[in-house]
Amino acid sequence: MMTIKGRVWRFGDDLNTDVIHPPQFFSLDDEKVKRGLFHGLDPELQPSLRPGDVLVGGRNFGCGSSRETSVRSLRLNGIGALIAVDFARIFFRNCTNNGLPCLTLARAEDLKSLCAGGRVEVDTERALVTTDTGEEIPLEPPGAFVRRVWEAGGLLSLLPDARTGWGV
Amino acid sequence: MRGNGLVRGDGRTLSDKIIDAHAVDPGETGAYREVRVDALLGHDATIALLVDEFERRGLEIWDRERVIFTNDHFSPPATIERADISNRFLRFARERDVTHLMLDRGICHQLLVESPLCAPGSLIVGADSHTVMGGGVGACATGMGSTDILYALATGRTWMQRPATVRVRFHGSLGAHCNGRDVVLELLRLLGESGARYRSLEFHDLGHVPLGQDDRFAISNMAVELGAKFGVFVPDEVTAAYCAARDGRRPDDLPAPDPGARYERTVDVDLSALTPRIARPWSPGNVVPVRDVERRPVSVAFLGSCSSGRLTDIRDAAEELDGKAVHPHVRFVVIPASVGVFQEALEAGYVATLTSAGAIFNHSSCGPCGGIDKGVLGAEDVCVSTSNRNFRGRMGHWESRTYLASARTVARAALAGHIGPDLYEAGGAREARGARG
Ligand code: SF4
């Protein structure tokens, strides 16, 4: 499994996909998709991101549209993992399908220990995030299905072979 | 769980039964199961995202007759980039001879419910979150991202778990000023934006006057604004009549939940007591009764989107605007959800009534709903809209503000030039109009 190291960026509850990635940045051009991340919320945010950074939100992270450009943009900006109290369904699937870990806090109250700008290390195998003060925060262990998709490197790696079909 | 030994609370909900009926391996017990889908819905924007990957892998569509594709986001395209995206999508669909490729015919979700593929008990996936609207006719329909859809398009299968179910029972009957939009806004007020996260909302219409089909579509459509995976009406006579008129025959089967189905919770809504509702910026969960909303001038009124934009919505607006004039400071944009709806509105005379009053009609498409097309908001715009999301920046500028309401409320605000508690006071909108002479 994976270890992700990066800085924390904090968001509130119900962070929707239109705020994550405004619709006017919908494109097939990776550069445009990359630039659009959080553009309305804070145009300075995207250029400040570094590979491995971790986005931390409250409840219902990623609610709204199914447009996968929001997840593409997170990937293109090198976001390492997302941590929240809980995630919206379609967004969770989209991230998982693209191998971007969405991790749920085992205890919602631990949210306050994940401060903006702090450095964290996320261990998906042990379902644990360690802060720069050494505090260990437990995460919900991902289910078997999610692990299977992560291990395959994304949903498309589980596609049956195009030539042989399902073989049953 | 079947047969005589049924213990109350152990039975299956509607979505449990529909998922079970589509399981590839009925014996599998894990949380996630592989299921077959009856239909797949896609549009220009999200299908274009998967074209390259689909072709690179040399995949084929599992069943071209079960695929409904339309260009609705960029219909017709307004920029070169969008024209290229649209063309890529159209080429992909035409090369694969997708049976139900509908060029410029309206919003995909409306076209889905106008198709016999959307039947009671169907399991449907779509490359857009509002696919959930198929629940209006008793289908378990749900939105997914392009990667999930690519997988389903190639295999006719996806993974699903049985969601916990929240039963919503409607009692009484809707008052003259309310429609399905007010009902679903009330649910958002009661439950909040994550109130049905990952759940199936199972709607039981127990009123003595059943909700109309358009009301049901509006309710199912915004189930996803509550976070729901499905928003499914238990099929009844209204469903059967709608399908019979659409398909030329009654549905074979009207699936029902078990009498002792297990519900996570039950929410009862008294429709008779409901008054018009409005969601304030910037959350569809930020709902208040119209009588409690702050007075604020509006510059744009939008009647359209997959959430509304159906015949009864256009009728309600025509009723409000008949023989009157839209406030001179308001741009009133109307977009019928499909070309079929537009033709019906033409025949009924609503288009003449509304255009005489100063409204403009745009081609059946998403329009300004996702900040996409004609009617997009500038920084100072305040919009009252029948669309489903008033997220910050969604309909245009980050500083613009959108209020969500029913078509009747939107029409009254367009007349009055503002939203406010007076919209439903006797003669309120009329007086406001009279005042400007
Ligand atoms: S009308 Fe709006 S909500 Fe509906 S599919 Fe189009 S963009 Fe999405």
In short:
Chain A has 168 residues and is α/β, with parallel strands linked by helices.
Structure description:
The complex is a heterodimer of chains A (168) and B (437). Chain A has helices at 17-20, 30-35, 45-48, 69-76, 89-97, 144-152; strands at 3-10, 54-57, 81-84, 102-104, 119-123, 128-131, 136-138. Chain A is of the alpha/beta class and 168 residues long. Chain A has 6 helices and 7 strands; from the N terminus they run βαααβαβαββββα. The radius of gyration of chain A is 16 Å and the shape is globular. Chain A has a single domain (3-158), classed as Aconitase, domain 4, CATH 3.20.19.10. Chain B is 30% helix and 18% strand. The radius of gyration of chain B is 21 Å and the shape is globular. In chain B, β8, α7 and β9 form a beta-alpha-beta unit. Chain B has 14 helices and 20 strands. With 437 residues, chain B is an alpha/beta fold. In chain B, the strands form 6 sheets. A 5-stranded parallel sheet of chain B has the order 4-3-2-5-6. In chain B, strands 17-16-15-18-19 form a 5-stranded parallel sheet, with helices on one face. Chain B starts with 13 loop residues before the first helix and ends with a helix.
